[in-house]
Design a protein that fits this description.
With 559 residues, the chain is α+β, with helices and mostly antiparallel strands. It contains 19 helices and 21 strands. 43% of the residues lie in helices and 17% in strands.
C-alpha cells in the first residue's frame, strides 16, 4: 500500500470528521446523531487503512495478529477521543442546557447551569422603541426574579424556567448572550469566570415595534392565528404575533425563598398549557403549518412569467368549471358570470382557480417544484427561532397526477406553509426578487449601553429575477386596485396584496389569509396574516393586514 494512498486516506478522514463536526453541531435529533455515527464509522475505516501496519511474512503469525489488534484498538481509542471532543467541546452548550422529564414528571438539567442561573443577573430584552420585553431584578436576599411586563411581547421572549422547563424562543436562542457567556469581550468573560466575579448578562434590542406588536395581538384577539410585519428591504421583523399564547411569568422558577410557591404555580400552569388543544405554546408564525390557498398563486404566477409560459396580459378562458382527468374544478370567484376571458393579471386579482389550474398544467410538475424551492419550500429558513419547513407536497409522486398539479397551482393539495414562509414570498416580490434573511434581534449591548454587535441586513436567496418581480408587483397592485383585495388600499401609498381562503376539509371553516406589501413609492413593509378557520380572506385576514400596514407606515411618517 503506497504512502500516497495512506496519506490520502488519513486526509479524507480528517476532512470528513471536521465536516461532520460542523454540520451536526447543535443538532440533537436522532437523525443527526445517526448521520454523525455514520461519518465516524467511515472515518475509522479510512484511518485504519492509513495506519494499517505492513508486516513481512517472516514475522510470526501471532505477532502479526497482536500488531493488527493493537492497531484496531488504537483507531478505536482515537475515534472515541473524537466523539468525546464533540460532546465536551462542540456540543457542550446544547448538552448543558438540555432538560429532561423523568417518569415522575420531575424536570432535571445540568446542575451547573441551574447554579449559574441563580448567580447571574440575566440581561434584559427591549423592543426597538425601548419598551421592556423581559427583565431580571435582584431581590433583597440576593435571588433573582425574571419578569415579562407586556403580554403582547412576552411570548416572543419565551419562557425562562431554569429549575423546571429550561427555556424557549429568544430566551433559548440567546441564552449564552443573556447570561453574559458570549457576545462580549472573550478575555473579560474568561477572567470573570475564573475569578468568580459578579457578572450581568447582555441585553437584546429587538427590531419589533411595540405599537405594531400590540395592535397585531389586539386584532387577532381570541382567534387562533398569526401575523407578521417585516421590513421589505432589511428583513427586520416589526411585529410577530401569535394567538393564543402564554404568560412566561407563570413558568419562571429560580432559587430563593419563593421557590416552592413558584414551582407549584409553574407546574399547574404547564399542565394547563400542554393540555389545551389550541396549542398556546406553539409560535404560529414560525411553527404553524397551514394550507396557503390562493396566496400561493403568487408562486404559480411568478413561475409562469419567468419560465415564459405566460405574460401578464395572456388571456385564459374561464367558463365556470374545468375538468382535469376525473376531477371537476368549479369556479366560484368570477366577478361576472357572463364573462369568460381573463388575463393572468385579472385572474390573480379575481383569484380564479380555473385559470390557475390551467397555468399549473402549463408549468408542469418539475417547474412547479423548482420555483417552490426557489421561494424557500423544502428549506430551513435562516432565523433566530426554529422554523418548521414548508413543503409543496408530502408525497413525491403527488404532482405527477394532473388533477393534483392543477389544485396545487391555486394553493390546495398537499401544500403546507408557515406564515413566515408566506411573508418571505411577498418580500421576494417587493424586494426585486430577493428574499431577505428575517431577524428579530437588532443589537446586543452591555449594561452600560455599549453596543457589542448589530444584526446587519443580509439576503437569503433569489426567488425570481428583477423583471418577474416588477411584473408581479404590478399584478399584486392591480389586485388591490381592481380585485378582491381592494379593501387593502391605503390613500397616498402603493399597496399590493393577495387574499386567500384555504379549504381545510370536513365541515370546518377555511383558513383566512392575506399577504401583501405597502410603501410610499416603493414597497417598504410586507405583511402575512392567517386566521385559522376564519372564513373568507377578504373579510377577516385582509382587514387585519390593512391596519397593520397602516400603523407601520405611520411609524415612518413620525420619524
Amino acid at each position: 500500500m503506497s504512502g500516497f494512498f495512506r496519506a490520502s486516506a488519513f486526509f479524507a478522514a480528517t476532512i470528513l470528521l471536521t465536516f461532520g463536526m460542523i454540520v451536526t453541531k447543535g443538532h440533537s435529533s436522532r437523525t443527526w446523531f445517526f448521520l454523525w455515527l455514520a461519518m465516524l464509522f467511515v472515518a475509522s475505516v479510512l484511518i485504519t487503512v492509513a495506519v494499517w501496519p505492513r508486516l513481512p511474512r517472516t514475522i510470526p503469525a501471532t505477532q502479526r495478529t497482536i500488531a493488527h489488534g493493537a492497531t484496531l484498538f488504537m483507531v478505536g481509542f482515537l475515534v472515541l477521543g473524537v466523539q468525546l471532543a464533540r460532546v465536551q467541546v462542540a456540543d457542550s452548550a446544547i448538552i448543558s442546557e438540555r432538560t429532561h422529564s423523568d417518569a415522575g414528571n420531575v424536570d432535571v438539567q445540568d446542575p451547573r447551569h441551574r447554579l449559574m442561573a441563580s448567580e447571574v443577573q440575566r440581561g434584559s430584552i427591549f423592543t426597538s422603541d425601548g419598551k421592556v420585553v423581559a427583565q431580571t431584578d435582584k431581590n433583597p436576599d440576593g435571588s433573582f426574579i425574571r419578569s415579562y411586563p407586556d403580554p403582547a411581547t412576552a411570548y416572543l421572549a419565551g419562557y425562562y424556567s431554569p429549575l423546571l422547563y429550561g427555556s424557549s424562543n429568544l430566551e433559548a436562542a440567546y441564552d449564552s448572550e443573556l447570561m453574559g457567556e458570549s457576545g462580549g469581550n472573550p478575555i473579560t468573560q474568561w477572567l470573570d469566570g475564573i475569578l468568580h466575579r459578579d457578572r450581568r448578562g447582555y441585553d437584546l434590542t429587538l427590531s419589533v415595534n411595540q405599537d405594531v406588536q400590540d395592535q397585531a395581538n389586539q386584532l387577532l384577539g381570541n382567534q387562533r392565528g398569526a401575523a407578521i410585519v417585516m421590513n421589505a428591504k432589511t428583513g427586520a421583523i416589526v411585529a410577530m404575533a401569535s394567538t393564543p399564547n402564554f404568560d412566561p411569568n407563570k413558568l419562571y422558577v429560580n432559587e430563593g425563598p419563593q421557590i416552592n410557591a413558584e414551582t407549584d404555580t409553574a407546574k399547574a400552569y404547564w399542565e394547563q398549557l400542554t393540555s389545551q388543544q389550541d396549542s398556546p405554546l406553539l409560535l404560529r408564525p414560525t411553527q404553524g403549518l397551514y394550507i396557503p390557498g390562493s396566496i400561493f398563486k403568487t408562486v404559480t404566477a411568478s413561475a409562469a412569467l419567468q419560465s415564459g409560459v405566460a405574460q401578464p396580459d395572456t388571456v385564459y378562458r374561464d367558463e365556470g368549471a374545468l375538468t382535469v382527468g376525473s376531477r371537476v374544478i368549479p369556479e366560484e370567484n368570477r366577478p361576472d358570470n357572463n364573462r369568460i376571458d381573463y388575463t393572468l393579471t385579472d385572474a390573480y386579482g379575481w383569484s380564479l382557480n380555473v385559470v390557475f389550474a390551467q397555468i399549473g398544467l402549463q408549468i408542469g410538475p418539475q417547474r412547479m417544484q423548482e420555483f417552490a424551492q426557489k421561494f424557500g419550500f423544502g428549506s430551513d429558513i435562516p432565523f433566530e427561532l426554529p422554523v418548521a419547513i414548508s413543503e409543496l407536497d408530502a408525497d413525491p409522486s403527488f404532482l405527477s397526477d394532473q388533477a393534483s398539479l392543477a389544485v396545487t397551482a391555486f394553493g390546495q393539495g398537499q401544500i403546507q406553509a408557515t406564515p413566515l414562509q408566506m411573508a418571505l414570498i411577498a418580500d421576494a416580490v417587493a424586494n426585486g426578487g430577493t428574499m431577505m434573511e428575517p431577524y428579530l434581534v437588532q443589537k446586543i449591548s452591555d449594561e452600560k449601553g455599549t453596543t457589542l454587535s448589530t444584526n446587519s441586513p443580509s439576503s437569503w436567496q433569489r426567488a425570481i429575477d428583477e423583471k418577474t418581480a416588477s411584473q408581479m408587483q404590478q399584478i399584486m397592485i392591480n389586485s388591490v386596485q381592481n380585485g378582491y383585495a381592494s379593501g387593502a388600499q391605503i390613500p397616498g401609498y402603493v399597496v399590493g396584496g393577495k387574499t386567500g381562503t384555504a379549504e381545510v376539509g370536513g365541515d370546518k371553516q377555511p383558513n383566512s389569509w392575506f399577504i401583501g406589501f405597502a410603501g410610499k413609492t416603493d414597497p417598504e413593509y410586507v405583511v402575512a396574516v392567517v386566521v385559522e378557520n376564519g372564513g373568507e380572506g377578504t373579510k377577516v385576514a385582509l382587514p387585519i393586514a390593512h391596519q397593520l400596514l397602516q400603523t407601520a407606515l405611520q411609524l415612518d411618517e413620525t420619524k
